[in-house]
Amino acid sequence: MNRRVSLAEALSTYAILLAIGVAVLAPFLLMISVSLASDSTTVKMTFTLLPREFEFNNYARAFNSPTIDLGRHILNSLFIVAGSIIGQVLVSSFVAYGFARFNAPGKNVLFLILLGTMMIPGAVTLIPQFALYRSLGWLGTYAPLIVPNFFGGAFNIFLIRQFITRLPAELDEAAKMDGVGPIGIFWHIIFPLIRPITVAVAILTFQFNWSWFLEPLIYLQDAEKMPLAVAVRTMSATTSAGATPMWNLVMVASMLLTLPMLIVFFFGQKYVFEANISGGSAAIK
Amino acid sequence: MAAAPDESLPLAHETKALRRGRGKFLSARRRESIWFYIIISPWLIGLLLLLAGPMLYSIYLSFTDWNLFDAPSWIGLDNYIRLFTRDRTFGYALTNTFVYTFLYVPLNMVLSLAIAYLLNKSLPGMRIFRTAIYLPYVVPVVATTMVFRWVFAPESGLLNSFLALFGIDGPAWLLNPGWVKIALVIMSLWGVGSSVVFLLAGMQGIPVELYEAASIDGATEHHRFFRITLPMLSPVIFFNMIMNIIASLQTFTQVYILNLDPNTPSNAIIMIIPYLFDNAFRFNKMGYASAIAWVLFIIIFAFTLLVIRSSSAWVFYESEMKR
Question: Cβ contacts (< 8 Å) between A265 and chain B: which residues?
Answer without folding.
Answer: 134-135, 138
